[in-house]
Write a structure and sequence with these properties.
This protein has 253 residues and is of the alpha+beta class. It contains 5 helices and 15 strands. Helix content is 21%, strand content 45%. About 4% of the residues have low confidence.
Length: 253
């Protein structure tokens, strides 16, 4: 518990360092950047071993009002067979590092380029690392999306409004040993909206093409899948912050 409070305190202290003058990267900064990049690569590949090794067991992450744990991080990993279908390239700037012995802090501003072509930038991130047995692990991460801006958003496609009726319904996913997650998709006029336990407010799903939808300012993509008879039976999520990347939801209503 004491360690958790210490980590939280360091996260808030970190915000004052981000706009400080940049210096030549130290050995510590190089090491922490390398761990950050290894984790980004692991989430693109679905590499569980790297995530297990580099993320502390008591890890937590705050993204706006959402909190995630190490278990949530594992849920976000795509299946290795799907690796490469939704890659993200991340760039860091204004990196600031503070060394507190066996605890280190790295604050930065980052942007992302998605495989779909969407670009985001201006997001403030703070990582807290803890060293155990000579190995640095990511113990906590705070991401503030207040300054996030979409640099290049996808083009909204024109699709047949009749498709929206076919996509509307309830979709269910049963994670192993966990509660079921239900996504509700509803049509309102010529628009499609979704809601889930993680997003109680409705989010508009904007068509990128006839089967793939996005939400404004988000990396998440929603895919609707048909069976051999042409009936919509599944929904796939890619790039979700919380729910496992590539999660398959079965249509139940």
């Amino acid at each position: 518990m004491k360690q958790t409070f210490t980590i939280i305190a360091l996260i808030f202290i970190a915000s004052s360092f981000v706009m400080a003058q940049t210096t030549t990267p130290s050995k510590l900064e190089q090491d922490l950047r390398a761990i950050h990049q290894q984790l980004e690569d692991a989430f693109n590949r679905g590499d569980k071993a790297t995530v297990e090794r580099l993320i502390a067991d008591d890890f937590f992450q705050n993204i706006g009002a959402l909190r995630a744990t190490k278990a949530d991080a594992f849920r976000r990993l795509p299946d290795p067979k799907d690796a490469g279908k939704f890659n993200k390239t991340e760039t860091l700037s204004d990196v600031q590092v503070r060394d507190y012995g066996d605890v280190a802090l790295m604050s930065y501003i980052f942007g992302r380029v998605l495989q779909s072509g969407m670009e985001t930038g201006g997001t403030l991130g703070t990582n807290i690392y803890r060293r155990r047995n000579g190995q640095w692990q990511l113990a906590a991460r705070l991401i503030s999306q207040d300054g996030m801006r979409v640099i290049k958003a996808p083009t909204i496609a024109k699709i047949d409004p009749k498709l929206l009726n076919e996509y509307a319904g309830q979709y269910e996913w049963q994670p192993l040993n966990e509660k079921k997650i239900v996504i509700n998709v509803v049509r309102e006029g010529d628009k499609l909206f979704s809601s889930s336990p993680y997003h109680m407010l409705k989010e508009e799903l904007l068509p990128e093409n006839e089967i793939m939808f996005f939400t404004k300012g988000s990396e998440t993509r929603t895919f609707f899948v048909r069976d051999t008879n042409g009936k919509v039976t599944k929904l796939f999520l890619r790039g979700s912050i919380i729910i496992k990347d590539g999660s398959e939801f079965n249509k139940i209503k």
